[in-house]
Amino acid sequence: MTALPSSYEAVPYPDFVHPRTNPESIAAMVRLFGVSAACPLGEPCRVLELGCGQAGNLISLASLFPESQFLGVDLSPGHIAAGQLAIDELGMTNIELRQGDLADFPTPGPGDDERAKFDYVLVHGVYSWVPEEARQHILRICRDHLSRRGVALISYNTLPGWQAKGLVREIIQYHGSVHPGEPLQTVREAKRFLADLAESVPDSTGYGKMLREQFQALCQSDEAYLFHEQFEAVNEPRYFHQFISEIEAVDLQFVCESSFAFVPSQSAGIQRRMQSAPLLEREQTIDFLCNRTFRQSLIVRSDSGAQRGREADSDAISELFLSSEVSCFDVDDVPLVDSLPEGEMRIANPDGASATLRGRSTMAVMLRLSQIRPAAESFEQLWQHVLATVAGCEDSNAVRTVLREDLLQLAQVSMVRFHTGPLPLTHAVSAKPQASQLAQWQAARDNVVTSRLHQAIRLDEATRTMIGLCNGENGLEEIITGMMQFVSREGVSLQHEGQPVTDPNLLRTLVAEKVPANLKNLAEMGFLER
Ligand SMILES: C[S@@+](CC[C@H](N)C(=O)[O-])C[C@H]1O[C@@H](n2cnc3c(N)ncnc32)[C@H](O)[C@@H]1O
Questions:
Q1: Residue nearest to atom 1 of ligand 1 (CA)
Q2: ipTM > 0.90 for the complex
Q3: If one looks up domain 20-159+237-304 in CATH, what number appears?
Q4: If residue 448 lies in a helix (H) or strand (E), which one and from where to where?
Q5: Are the CB atoms for 186 and 178 separated by under 8 Å?
Q6: What is the residue extent of each domain of the chain?
Q7: Best residue among 2, 15, 75 to mutate for probing ligand 1, ranked by most atoms within 8 Å of CB
Q8: pLDDT tens, residue by residue, 66-117
Q9: Short-list 506, 508, 520, CA closest to 470
Q10: Nearest alpha-carbon partner for 121 in 301, 368, 383, 362
Q11: How far is the CA of 81 from the centre of ligand 1 (A)?
């Protein structure tokens, strides 16, 4: 038995949702690399999460894929109790939580049913934070419990990026030990100490710059998260190549990352090396280029038939669905809504990253995806759309190939996402919009609510109220009335022509004007069900 991590009883780990652990996005990612995994959008899957914490991640997945079965295991009684309470209140029947040590997770016997194995094993935020013995159990469970088509996601802290973070952790640990009664006070003191240090070391030195960057990163993190990041007894970051040796030693095999890495601009020398290097060597070089701190690697059994070191193949896109968060603009930065521009087109992500497109068929696809955002359409549907909207576009394999290659490149810079089917959400607001039961339950309790894109989003009071009103029974009039009640209950002051509004009729008119746009916004964030 590994020791009970009582630190998690003193300070529960925040209940995060990890978008890249979504089995449907994992299935699409590995498909590009030649692996045909089960997909919960089309068939019931079995999903195991090791070290599931308070199970927020697993609960969101279980709500997205009601036909699939989910099992979460965690050593912390407090985490499991919190997760179970949520499951009971939600009345979910496709998720089971077990309190226990990874070390005690049973090894299947020779006669055990292959159907009892898992299509997905998720291990997020655990591998680097447990002793060697527990790490070996994680790998054993992946090897023994993955089905032949199964995929595991293991996240881990990586070098060289953790070199600087590790140094700060050592400074913080030297500075103070944990106050038994007030663990979060320890975090606050550690932050103050680091702030003093960062202020004293001149910016002109590399060391001063590093301290300041690390301090700023610390300031953006949740205190409970920081407590565990800085004070857990074990934290062993590793190089990607070390991780590969560890998994290959137990007959597991790397396929790809759960998302494409942002690779900064490269010198001619690095470009030459990257072009000729095999996949695993290139992945390690990317970590050196990006000073990477974290990976979420996708892994299969060595006997799965997957080819080691296989490259992404744009041909696979023919079988996939695509979605995008981008908005489209013409050369003068005028937003494009329904027609292609004469010349180039600029696309921009919500985070500000942008790209310029020149190919007409790629422009047509991206404009279509921006119109149906955040929903997904199949490559085939998008191709038919290209033929219908791009004058003179030839229906040939050569043009389709160029389009697929363009789309793969756009995915590599986070402008496109791949899926294995239509997403369980709608971009169109129906007459009686419906938010998921989970979103309604969360919105009534907390300001962080999980979307149908498996993303946790911080919302204001008004948006939470609107999610509660989107129960599949209320039409537009009832939602407007509900928002009027919210405005008067909360004492929200609306302005019209620079004056506060007191006339109830004008108030209703103003609220009624805003509600359709707000509902559209909910749909764009992925909160409305199909
Ligand atoms: C850093 S938290 C990560 C929680 C969650 N997976 C996430 O990424 O948000 C690590 C979790 O692993 C659990 N854990 C640590 N050692 C364990 C063990 N030997 N067996 C089962 N769970 C363990 C802890 O209780 C804790 O909930």
A1: 125
A2: yes
A3: 3.40.50.150
A4: strand 448-450
A5: yes
A6: 20-159+237-304, 161-231, 320-419, 437-524
A7: 75
A8: 999 999 999 999 999 999 999 999 999 999 999 999 999 998 887 778 888 9
A9: 520
A10: 301
A11: 14
